[in-house]
Amino acid sequence: MLSVSFSPLIPDYALWALGAVVALLAILALVTRGPVAILRAVALGLVLLALANPALVQEDREKVKDIVAVVIDRSTSQTLGDRSPMTDQVRAELERRFGSLADVDPRFIEADDGSGDDGTRLFAALSNGLADVPPDRLAGVIFVTDGVVHDIPPSVEGLGFRAPLHALITGRPDERDRQIKLLEAPRFGIVGKDQTIRAQIMERGGTGSALVTVRRDGQVLTRQQVRSDTPFSLDVRIEHGGTNVVELEVEGLPNELTQANNRAVIPIEGIREKLRVLLVSGEPHAGERTWRNLLKSDANVDLVHFTILRPPEKQDGTPINELSLIAFPTRELFQQKIKEFDLIIFDRYANQSILPSSYFENIVRYVREGGAILVAAGPEFASYGSLAQTRLSPIIPGQPNGSIIEQPYKAEITDTGDRHPVTRDLPGSEQSPPAWGEWLRIIGSQVQSGDTLMSGANDLPLLVLRREDKGRVALLLSDHAWLWARGYQEGGPHLDLLRRLAHWLMKEPALEEEALRASAQGRDIRIERQTMAETADPVTLVAPSGQESSVALTESRPGLFTAQVASRELGLHTVRSGDLIAFVSIGPANPRELMDVFSNTEALAPIAQATGGSVRRVAMEGDQSITLPRIIAVHSGSRFAGGDWIGIKPSDSAILRGVSVFPMALGFIGLVLLIGSTLAAWLIEGRRRA
């Protein structure tokens, strides 16, 4: 390539000023001397040209290959139907065709899901993939996608290049799908009350109605037929505190795109208005205040506490009108309002004819219908007034053997207790013997049913838990827990133990013996299986696409088995182990990738047509094969697509290998021109005077 360049010997402003003077002198000379002054003007022009220092520049350039960017959409929506194998076929065919084009260098760019809930970001992937490519080397861009793109620029100026853009759309125009959309979903609910959920079934190619199944914690509540595209409401009872998992599932359509959006899960946190606890102390004693302080310190506990100071049979001649005591409201507490309590604690209570037998029957019925009692036993438990000798005996897990052992001992956690959430990892239990103070008394008892979590002197049972129908019962066979609270021999974890015990009785989900939990850590799923068994069977993990896999668990702590699995899909995953079920969502609760699952050619059409490109499907309805257009080079024009072809725009990009410069106003040639023009002007003007 040849070109002319100028390298002035004087500053530009001086060169322009000198040029103006030369032009003025030339005009004056022409006016005063006539045409003969042209030679003077030529001579002055040559001087001016010499000062501009012109030169011929010869560049040695090597043509480089044009870049064609091929962006492959690998987002979640591209896994639906047969889009993934279709995409692989298109890529393989494009690689084959570009291999026959000698002057084209294809660059394939893979685009995954955007971070967070950004959806499909093909233009961002294109920009990152071409960061090292000059814009003038780009001959074209080809998208292989389903058309669901979430970062389309508003105008062609936002692209950053002027090459044609073509989109090859996977999927088929006759796709059908059904999904359930949540309109209103509560996050919290009061235990024992109903919560309303509003939802709507969206479908394309459906039947106009569908069967919706409602589950709570994996148990089917109801099934009902619902019209499509019409909002409907459901009332769900919040059964317990903690997370109540409500699942809405709509039946699928034959050959629908995906069933990952046929299910919606609403975790509703059950909140108790107040945990009502009835504490009945049989007599004043040192440990009474420990229970009271523990329960009063919990703002969520409404405590009703009675201490029996004067049994009915006591006769000391004190006039009734001088007694400052109130009567124990037995009928109100144990008959009228017993169901209002979440927990009843009998603290060193002996049967002193205060409660008739019918009231003990009410307590048994209360427990079997879902209530809870805790018996904190003292010496009275081994006497004739023991609660084990009343009609409570069928639900009390241990029967006293009449012995009361008073000797120092350290409470030990049993093998069963090591696995139970109530006593596992109690502070100080990691040592042997445990790093806590001694207790001084234990009531001998024979455990008939339930789990013994702690033992005391002579390996006698100290803490026993039992389930009774829908309710729960705990038996603590010592009244010396207060020694830990008072710091005797540096004390012990009385708050942890007694609080866990009370909350297990009130059905705290985190303290369940058999539980399955799942949580998300980025794109990984962490699974926890709490069990009292020695081993845990593998759990079943169901991905949003419906694909099932078996996950083996390893024991991280006694009774706690865990696993961590990398998820390849966004959306709601289901974990099952027998009758237990847990849900975990990877990514956003309602990902953009699954909100609009139908492939389309409309979204990319405006931006593609503005570049001269096109948008077209690679497969049509009922056609199992793919059809790709021809790829040709179009050197001029504004249209780069036809009925069966797409075009790329070759560029003139080249690599500069060398430069040769030939000065024109310096050296012998410049001197000859300057002297020649001066002599010509002198000779002609001399002849004219002669």
UniProtKB/TrEMBL annotation:
* Sequence intervals crossing the membrane: 13-31, 38-57, 661-684
Q: Which InterPro entries match?
A: Class_I_gatase-like
What keywords are annotated for this sequence in UniProt? Membrane, Transmembrane, Transmembrane helix
Q: Which residues form a coiled coil?
A: none
Which PANTHER family does the record cross-reference, listed alphabetically?
BLL2462 PROTEIN
Q: What is this protein identified as?
A: Glutamine amidotransferase domain-containing protein
Organism listed in the record: Microvirga lupini
